[in-house]
Amino acid sequence: MNAQQESKKRFPPLDQVNWGMIGVGNVTEKKSGPAFNKIPHSALVAVMGRNAEKAADYAHRHGIAKWYDDADALIADPAVNAIYVATPPDSHLEYAAKIMRAGKAAYIEKPMARNAAECEEMNRISRETGSPLFVAYYRRVLPYFVKLRELIDSRVIGDPRCVNIRLHWQPYDEEIGPNPQPRWRVFPELSGGGHFHDLASHQFDYLEYAFGPIKYAAGIARNQAGLYKADDIVVANFEFQSGMLGTGSWCYTVNKEQRVDEAVIIGSLGRIIFSFFEKSTIRVETADGAEEYNIPYPEHVQQPLLEEIVKELRGQGKSPSNGTTGARASALLDRITARIG
Questions:
Q1: Residue 291 forms beta bridges with which residues?
Q2: What are the tens digits of pLDDT across the range 2-35?
Q3: pLDDT at 142
Q4: Which of 97, 154, 245, 260 has the fewest Cβ atoms within 10 angstroms?
Q5: SS3 27
Q6: Among 137, 164, 189, which residue terminates a domain?
Q7: Which of 114, 137, 160 is the last residue of a domain?
Q8: What is the CATH number of the domain that holds 247?
Q9: Do 207 and 239 meet the contact criterion of CB atoms below 8 Å apart?
Q10: What are the tens digits of pLDDT across the range 174-187?
Q11: What residues make up the domain containing 21?
Q12: Are 265 and 253 spatial neighbours (Cβ–Cβ below 8 Å)?
């Protein structure tokens, strides 16, 4: 019996998935939080925030029955059988371990943890307890990226040869000025790295989903502007097991006029140009001409993935994003930035 079969044996299907949520920050306001109550057989029944006033306010505004300022109390709530962790990565392992050892399903924000070693420990606990573990790499089932994969798989541009990523953004307002106050994402002790770890995790997770495993990855990560401790520029080369190659550059200190979010997949018969974060169009260019697809994001971007997770927890499907797949993205980030964990 393999680990997945053992997990199914030890974690029986749920009829109703009653969610608890640890963390009430911005990511939960629209991207995720409201979606739990829009899915059949799913409900967000309790939330937790370290600031009691903010937790109570969130619960009131979103019509949630219970709120806590103590994560252990929420985890112990007998009405809750699955918990979403929407906190910075430094607490993901701690919370995930407590959730799974309490016999409940864990759904973790991305990146899964600060490094690959923490991810592996989370997966080990999942195997040990049989409690399911999922990661919020929701692009795998967003309509925009479902269409992108359809175009890739249909060989509209022939055989894929290489992919090039450029993500160049200006500093956030709070990172510059006379009294800068950078947020947690650029403190490696909290996030595992900087903006590269936060954003490129989505990119590498999807690339492996679309093209298969990456067998080699290397890069250079540096801090050039000195706005914070984390790296602010990264370049990378990588190779898929299929033989397809990839390159990328990520810089978070350009001026706003040079801001770009573009990825190009080059194939034997053409190319596909798309955006990981900012645009709703996919452009296909071949010898026959160019065609564009405009596919806006849904109101709650995590809802399509949450629908698949609820189906799995009810014994009716399988989520495309789980602890095993999520850990691969973190391992690639570690290798590229030379933080082998």
A1: 284
A2: 444 444 457 999 999 999 999 999 999 999 999 9
A3: 98
A4: 154
A5: helix
A6: 137
A7: 137
A8: 3.30.360.10
A9: no
A10: 999 899 999 999 99
A11: 3-137
A12: no
Same domain, 256 and 117: no
Q: At what angle do helices 92-101 and 116-129 cross, to 10 degrees?
A: 0
pTM for this model (two decimals): 0.95
Strand order in the sheet with 105-108: 66-68, 42-48, 17-22, 82-85, 105-108, 133-135
- At residue 10, the pLDDT reads 77
Asked if residue 91 has pLDDT above 90, the reply is yes
* Number of domains observed in the structure of the chain: 2
**Mean pLDDT confidence for 276-296:** 98
pLDDT at 315 over 70: yes
Residue 306 token pair: 């949450």
Let me know: does 171 contact 225? Beta carbons within 8 Å: yes
Neighbouring residues of 241: CB distance < 8 A, sequence distance ≥ 6:
212, 213, 214, 215
Does 149 share its domain with 291? yes
Residues 109 and 250 in one domain: no
